[in-house]
Specification:
The complex is a heterotrimer of chains A (306), B (404) and C (294).
Chain A lengths: L1 H16 L6 H23 L8 H16 L5 H23 L4 H21 L16 E2 L3 E2 L3 H23 L2 H11 L1 H6 L4 H27 L9 H14 L6 H15 L6 H16 L3 H10 L4
Antiparallel strand pairs in A: 1-2
Chain B lengths: L1 H20 L7 E7 L10 H19 L5 E7 L4 H14 L4 E4 L3 H14 L2 E4 L16 E3 L4 H14 L4 E7 L2 H16 L3 E8 L7 H10 L3 E5 L2 H13 L8 E4 L4 H7 L1 H4 L3 E4 L7 H13 L7 H20 L4 H10 L2 E3 L3 E5 L5 E2 L2 E6 L12 E7 L1 H4 L14
Parallel strand pairs in B: 1-2, 1-3, 3-4, 4-5, 6-7, 6-8, 8-9
Antiparallel strand pairs in B: 10-14, 11-12, 12-13, 14-15
Helix pairs in contact in B: 2-12, 3-4, 5-6, 8-9, 12-13
Chain C lengths: L1 E2 L2 E2 H32 L6 H19 L3 H22 L9 H23 L15 E3 L4 E3 H23 L1 H11 L1 H6 L4 H23 L11 H14 L4 H21 L7 H12 L10
Antiparallel strand pairs in C: 1-2, 3-4
Helix pairs in contact in C: 1-5, 1-8, 1-9, 1-10, 2-3, 2-4, 2-8, 3-8, 5-6, 9-10, 9-11
The chains are: A mainly alpha (306), B alpha/beta (404), C mainly alpha (294).
Chain lengths: 306, 404, 294
């Protein structure tokens, strides 16, 4: 396990000192997406379930937090908590509907549900439709620390990211996580051993959805905006890409994957449609030749899980 | 290496001389042109706006012999408020941009206006439509230059009703802009004695309007109001033609149509369309001369009303920066409102307390193919609406800046 | 006479429009159903291939002066050939892996193709003229039906049912169906299974391209035209039953009708109704309305 602790230390250090050189708002974006990808990876990397609708959790929490912070004037930590609960609840409902099916059917039903959520948000007035919820106040953390200061906000985001990461770490290394992996490897054998696989999958789904929500809520506070982009199906596609590039089923893969993809989008933005082409190329290359992803390849090379 | 040293020395020198004359942040006035460079509004705004801004900077510096150092950058907001606000934030925080101009798509415009206020910069909007920018969402760091939903409704809507088009059916793009346009136009139609026979909300964006156009046809309204823009508008017009709706006696009212849209549609399909704009290249000698220069720099494509707006507003901005001797956003905005405007494209005008620029609006009808002498010769001027009638009066404004 | 508050004439008009849209759904979902049902490949590139079809027709006309009829024949073959190349070089290597990798690969390919075309042509549509034979309208009394749209309905019905017939009722189709159930056994009988699979993929792609050519005069030929329709078409295939050819055809037309009706009564929901139906069907009958559980 020490190598995992080393990797963890490197990650924390990187995020701690990077703001000296790199625009902090950009780094906060990376952290939010990294958490989102980690949550997604919990479901597919460790649970073996490809969800093509994870954007619905990111977006639901984004809107919930934005609404709580702006309209109800809640403190940021309460807004994030509330939003996480909201997406957790959505995960319960959608999970109950989706878990019964497997493989491609599971992916399709999550896509369908996510599309329905998208159209609901498109229509309901509170989301502001195309405008989104704008001018979301970052508020005062615990009523004391003013988060409109980028430095304070950075520490808040980093704290949430590390907390979410730690939760996932704990889940993966627990008996629950082991059973989940067993179900991913061979569901029939797990059933024959007496485990209620549907129950485990559902719990994994709910946790994945809730943590994805936590990421979404934090993101809408960082950018002070919650918009339809967060619930669109292309966002679901992006998180798949991030996880794939970083490494499915690794702990640190999604973080690196998110960093790569967000950086690419940011620094290559002036190239317009080339970003889409490059993303497509990365997808193709990863699937054909690079299935383990960056961290996965490193882990394979040092013969230890990362 | 040598070049870098010289550049640094030059900048330092400028900074010192600059400092003596004005407090320009970082020694340079940086203008950010933010718009749609790849989507439905890329012809109407896009790279053309960057060209217009650069022309404005050149022309102003030459004419006024000002000592300002000005730089123009451009970016694509893809019509998404999150992308637009990210770029704006990064521009203001890290890239030393002082002013953001253009910004079509109302949802992005509102976000950019908000961020400009927060950071004490300035946003001059020449692309967005929502009248909320000078209404309930107004602030002391935003100027709304070109047009808005109130003017469109008042121009096109009123003129059509007065012309006999007194029964309407709306095809409305189902998002904030479309709904605002429908709301404002319906109010004008009713106020002038017309009736709205029905309306249908079309998902935004839509490719196929056949079903909605049939409903409009069934309503037998004299006028089918298109409360949409961009691809939605051109698609509705094309398909109305295809389904013989216009031949059946109903007329289309394009509530937001730009010259490049008409160019894309072709006169065969667009003829007879009534629309309101605040600029047209063929209005007078001044506009003609400028438009020819612009077209030469823009690959032969004639300017849209947006491009003209970017040009004129950047010139006025620079005038204000020189007059106020600073590029601090809040101060320059105030200065822009004090100085009267005067340029070859929009003539003389003023900017009100609420940030609304006033200039006349023009009601045009699209020519028949036989009436046109060449490409871009598309409009017949039907009426000129004077500045004080075209825009929402201050008395009706819900802008908190307006002292009542 | 009014039905549900709408004059029956208007209702028929809407149903007819719905049928036209349904024709495209049917053509596209037919291609997808062939590819998924028979080959178990989830072809996310289908939307991009539909767009390719429209663009090849457009470019054929503007650069080479090839008219609509030539395009109708040449385009599916050309684009189908690119499908064959994709299958041979990339997809075939993924068969032994989880199906989801096929999905991810085709998703990536779709991004590449769409990005390339967006780079080249921007996002606004290119005009493609209606072929002369079909210009003008039929006056049906309750509406004017553009002749071209009538042709679309007829053509897609013919193509759909011919394909169904070949697959379900001919020897070639029987070989294909057998090969997907038990490839090694069929190969033992001397039939070149990999080649059949490649050609079948190419055929499915060709169908998408055909739909694209037919769509060109109606919808704008633009690089993003496949993006939103692909999700709808997947829903159609899932509802119809992923292995069932007839299911895809009937569901395609059916859903077009349902969408058309929704546009009349509750237009804002016309985009969502397909997904609501899909969610319901997946819960009650996960194999789809006409599908068989594999």
């Amino acid at each position: 396990m020490t190598h995992q602790w080393v990797a963890f230390a490197i990650m924390v250090l990187a995020f701690a000192i990077a703001p000296i050189w790199i625009y902090p708002v950009f780094l906060m974006k990376v952290m939010c997406f990294a958490l989102f990808a980690c949550a997604f990876n919990l479901l597919i990397g460790f649970g073996g379930l490809l969800s093509f609708g994870h954007a619905m959790f990111l977006g639901t929490a984004g809107y919930a937090a934005a609404h709580a912070a702006k309209v109800w004037g809640w403190n940021p930590e309460l807004a994030v908590l509330f939003a996480t609960l909201c997406s957790g609840l959505l995960a319960v409902v959608t999970g109950l509907l989706a878990i019964r099916r497997q493989g491609i059917y599971f992916a399709m039903i999550t896509l369908a549900l996510s599309q329905m959520v998208f159209f609901v948000y498109l229509q309901t007035p509170f989301t502001g439709g195309e405008d989104g919820i704008q001018a979301v106040p970052r508020g005062q953390l615990f009523g004391m620390f003013d988060l409109s200061n980028n430095a304070a906000m950075y520490m808040f985001v980093m704290a949430i990211f590390l907390m979410g990461f730690a939760i996932i770490w704990r889940i993966v290394h627990s008996p629950f996580g082991q059973i989940l992996k067993a179900i991913r490897e061979n569901q029939d054998r797990a059933i024959s051993l007496g485990y209620d696989t549907d129950h485990y999958k559902l719990v994994a789904f709910i946790m994945s959805g809730a943590i994805a929500g936590m990421a979404g809520a934090t993101k809408s506070l960082v950018f002070q905006l919650a918009s339809l982009t967060d619930v669109h199906w292309s966002m679901s596609g992006e998180v798949v890409l991030m996880t794939l590039v970083g490494g499915l089923g690794t702990l640190f893969g999604p973080v690196l994957g998110a960093a790569v993809i967000v950086s690419m989008q940011n620094y290559l933005a002036h190239l317009g449609a080339w970003v889409t082409i490059i993303q497509g190329l990365i997808f193709v290359i990863c699937v054909m030749a690079f299935r383990r992803g960056i961290i996965g390849e490193i882990a394979n090379w040092i013969k230890k899980p990362l | 290496m040598n070049r870098k040293l010289i550049a640094m020395a030059a900048t330092l020198a400028c900074a010192f001389t600059g400092a003596a004359q004005a407090q320009i942040s970082d020694g340079i006035v940086k203008i950010g042109v933010l718009n749609d460079m790849s989507g439905v509004y890329s012809d109407i705004t896009g790279q053309g706006s960057v060209t217009a801004a650069k022309m404005a900077v050149e022309d102003y510096l030459k004419a006024s012999k000002s000592a300002l150092k000005v730089e123009v950058v451009g970016a694509d907001h893809q019509n998404k408020p999150d992308v637009g606000s990210n770029i704006t934030r990064q521009w203001y925080d890290a890239d030393k941009v002082d002013m953001v101009v253009d910004v079509p798509t109302s949802s992005v415009a509102l976000a950019v206006s908000q961020i400009s206020k927060e950071k004490g910069k300035i946003h001059v909007n020449t692309g967005g439509a929502t009248s909320d920018l000078t209404g309930k969402s107004c602030n002391a760091n935003t100027i709304h230059w070109l047009y808005d939903t109130y003017m469109l409704a008042n121009g096109t809507g009123k003129a059509i009703v007065k012309n006999g088009g007194n029964t309407w059916f709306f095809l409305t793009a189902d998002y904030a802009f479309g709904q605002a346009l429908e709301r404002d136009t319906e109010a004008v139609v009713v106020k002038n004695g017309g009736k709205v026979l029905g309306k249908v909300r079309t998902p935004f964006p839509t490719q196929d309007f056949s079903s909605f156009l049939l409903q409009a046809q069934a309503s037998k309204a004299k006028i089918i109001g298109l409360a949409n823009a961009g691809g939605d508008t051109t698609n509705s017009i094309k398909q109305a033609y295809e389904f013989g709706i216009t031949k059946g006696g109903q007329n289309l009212a394009g509530l937001l149509v730009f010259l490049p849209d008409v160019h894309a549609l072709g006169l065969e399909k667009a003829q007879g369309l009534l629309l309101t704009e605040t600029f047209y290249w063929d209005l007078n000698d001044g506009t003609r001369a400028w438009s020819k220069r612009f077209a030469a720099a823009n690959g032969g494509k004639y300017p849209s009303m947006n491009h003209a707006g970017v040009y004129a507003s950047v010139i006025h901005y620079l005038k204000a920066v020189d007059a106020a001797k600073t590029d601090d956003g809040t101060k320059v905005t105030a200065q822009m409102k004090t100085l009267p405007t005067d340029d070859v494209l929009f003539g003389k005008g003023t900017i009100r307390q609420d940030g609304r620029k006033l200039h006349p609006a023009y009601l045009f009808e699209v020519k028949k193919p036989s009436e046109s002498k060449g490409p871009y010769d598309y409009y017949k001027l039907m009426a000129t609406i004077p500045a004080d009638e075209a825009f929402r009066p201050l008395s009706e404004s819900d802008c908190p800046l307006v002292k009542k | 006479m009014e039905i549900f508050g709408i004059p029956s004439q208007a209702l028929f008009g809407q149903l007819l429009i719905g049928l036209i849209n349904g024709s495209f759904y049917a053509l596209l979902s037919l291609g997808l159903a062939v590819i998924f049902g028979l080959l178990n490949i989830i072809n996310f590139t289908h939307g991009a291939q539909y767009m390719l079809g429209a663009f090849v027709a457009y470019l054929g006309l503007s650069k080479l002066g090839l008219n609509y009829w030539v395009a109708l024949v040449v385009t599916p073959v050309l684009v189908g050939a690119t499908g064959v190349v994709i299958e041979r070089t990339m997809l075939s290597r993924l068969y032994k892996l989880d199906h989801l990798y096929g999905l991810l690969l085709t998703f990536g390919l779709a991004l590449i193709i769409q990005g390339l075309f967006r780079n080249e042509f921007g996002s606004s549509g290119m005009p493609y003229p209606v072929p002369e034979v079909f210009q003008g309208v039929f006056n049906l009394g309750f509406m004017f039906l553009p002749k071209y749209r009538a042709w679309v309905i007829v053509a897609s019905v013919v193509v759909c049912f011919s394909t169904w017939y070949v697959i379900e009722r001919t020897k070639l189709g029987a070989y294909l169906r057998a090969a997907t159930e038990n490839p090694s056994l069929v190969q033992a009988f001397g039939i070149n299974v990999p080649r059949m699979i490649t050609l079948t993929y190419g055929f499915g792609v060709g169908l998408a391209a055909l739909a694209g050519v037919m769509a060109a005069p109606i919808y704008q030929v633009n690089p993003m035209m496949g993006v939103d329709i692909i999700i709808v078409v997947f829903a159609v295939v899932v509802i119809g039953g992923m292995g069932s050819i007839m299911g895809a055809i009937l569901t395609g037309f059916g859903l077009g009708l349902v969408e058309g009706l929704t546009k009349v009564f509750y237009p804002e929901a016309s985009n969502t109704v397909i997904f609501v139906i899909m969610a319901i069907v997946l819960l009650i009958k996960p194999a789809g309305l006409f599908g068989t559980q594999k």
